[in-house]
Each structure stands twice: as structure tokens, then as C-alpha cells.
Write a structure and sequence with these properties.
Distance between the termini: 40 Å
Radius of gyration: 14 Å
Strand content: over 45%
Order of helices and strands: EEEEEEEEEEE
Number of strands: 11
Largest sheet: 7 strands, mixed
Shape: elongated
Mean pLDDT: 96
Helix content: under 10%
Low-confidence stretches: none
């Protein structure tokens, strides 16, 4: 089993910054990819950013140029640096990890509990 613990959410003014962290633990053999999703009330869950084990990244159009995803492989942790935040960035942010374990070597998806990000004056 894999557990993901998220932190770093909170309230910030427009134009401000936050850094989200997501630490994975458990019977992990290999982490193939990590990602951040977000979901605002009444909206579908949206892909924010992804990063592979090799460091390749992708971003949703709405956050490109403002957000940066990174990871620390030694700590099994993924980060999301969010700059120039806008009110429309307000959402619950979820960490996702595709990881191989002794029970499923070829990888399965695991989700964090979600952390609230609110951008408001």
C-alpha cells in the first residue's frame, strides 16, 4: 500500500505564492510518475501538472508559466510551486502518484487527501 500526505495549502492574496508538498510512503519499489490535480466546487477535476521519474514535465494551459512541478526522488516527494496566484486557482489540490509495489509491480495510482488553496483578497 502507498500513502500520500499533502501539505502547504492555505489562504493567499492574488499575486501571492504557495508551495505544496506531497510525500509518498509505504511499500514503494518504483515511482513512475507524479502529478497534481485540482477540483473547484461544481467543476470537474483538472490536471494541473505531471512529472515523470525521468523529470519530464507537463502543465495545464491555465497554469503554464506560473506553476512549477518538481520532485525529490530520495524523499519520494513531489512539490508544486505556485506563483502569481489568481482567484480562479482556488480549489482543492490533490497529489497523484503512479507507483509500483510488491503487490502490483507495474504500477497503480494513489491519491492524497487533498489540500485547500484559496486565493482571495
Amino acid at each position: 500500500q502507498v500513502q500520500l500526505v499533502e501539505s502547504g495549502g492555505g489562504l493567499v492574496q492574488p499575486g501571492g505564492s504557495l508551495r505544496l508538498s506531497c510525500a509518498a510512503s509505504g511499500s514503494i519499489i518504483t515511482i513512475y510518475a507524479m502529478a497534481w490535480y485540482r477540483q473547484a466546487p461544481g467543476k470537474q477535476r483538472e490536471l494541473v501538472a505531471t512529472i515523470t521519474s525521468g523529470g519530464s514535465t507537463n502543465y495545464g494551459d491555465s497554469v503554464k508559466g506560473r506553476f512549477t512541478i518538481s520532485r525529490d526522488n530520495a524523499k519520494n516527494t513531489v512539490y508544486l510551486q505556485m506563483n502569481s496566484l489568481k482567484p480562479e486557482d482556488t480549489a482543492v489540490y490533490y497529489c497523484n502518484v503512479n507507483a509500483g509495489t510488491v503487490h502490483f509491480m507495474w504500477g497503480d495510482d494513489y491519491w492524497g487527501q487533498g489540500t485547500q488553496v484559496t486565493v482571495s483578497s
